[in-house]
Structure formats: C-alpha cells, structure tokens
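explain this chain.
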Amino acid sequence: MTGLVYYSSGSGNTRRFVERLGLPATRIAADTRVTEPFVLITPSYSDGEGHGAVAKPVIRFLNDPANRALIRGVIGTGNLNFGEHFALAGKIIATKCQVPLLYTFELAGTEEDVARVRQGLETFWTRQRSIGP
C-alpha cells in the first residue's frame, strides 16, 4: 500500500481515525514534503456559507507543486451538522486536484468506516499499480 497524508486539528478526530486505520501516515506540518503518491485525509471547516472549508495548512501543503503532483485521492471528514457543507474540503480538493473523492465520514468515524476505508485503500492502490504512473 502507498501513503496516507492527513491533517488534524486540535480536536484530534482525524488523527484518531488515522491511528485506528493502523497504516503508515504522515501528518501535515509546516514543512511537509512527500515523495510518493498519497491519499489525503482532511476535515472540513467552514462558516454557514461554506467559506474556509479547506484548512490553511492543507492549502499550503497542496500549493507546493511537488506535493500536489503526487495526490491520487482524497477522503473527507466533517460534522453532519454542517448539512450541505459536510466534508466540503474533500469535495473541493477532489475537484481542484482532479482526483477522486474516495470516502467521507463523520468526526472520528465508526469501526465500519475504518474497515471500509482500510479495504477501499487496498483496492484503490492495487488498481493504481495496475494502471501505472
């Protein structure tokens, strides 16, 4: 399996989800640079209008052309209370980076979410390897 990159805020929901996956993962920090293809897991933040959905550290990470060139998919998370803006960051990134939105889950996810993402990533990376670079 290839890499996971994630952003987690102070709430730690995304970090807890990634830890439960039990897969190698890199947390986005100020100087994060990746060298292999990855799937991004990111929460959403926004006001009632949907502004500010993508966290600034994620924007900075993806504004680096070397990082952006290696994104292969995105998994979005958020709070269902956001209604139509639920997991909006994942949807925005998928559109802007022209990669698939692979999955969405709420807050820190359920055990079913963890199992689905783990299996889905295995299938996704197997297909990616068969397609080639």
